[in-house]
Amino acid sequence: MKAMLGLSVVLLLACTATPFLFWQGRMSMEEYKTALAVLSLAYFVVATVYATRRKPS
N or C: which end of the chain has fewer CB within 10 A? Predict the structure, then answer.
């Protein structure tokens, strides 16, 4: 469970950093769009799986 939480935090930080990388000119528009789409999708999948897992009793 902690690994899923850690992964979701890393993905959220990556989603947040992507616009700054584009703004600094380190990414093209196509790279920006692709990275943001992939990272956002991965974040929502991991966060949903983490949120719906039952805690062991």
Answer: C
Q: Report the predicted TM-score, pTM, of the whole model to 2 decimal places.
A: 0.80
- The CA distances from residue 32 to 3, 18, 22, 44, 49, in Å, are 27, 7, 6, 18, 26
CB 43 within 8 Å of CB 15: yes
The structural domains of the chain, with segments of one domain joined by +, span 10-51
Q: What is the DSSP string of 5-57?
A: HHHHHHHHHHHHHHHHHHHTTSS-HHHHHHHHHHHHHHHHHHHHHHHHSPPP-
Looking at this protein, which amino acid is placed at residue 40? S
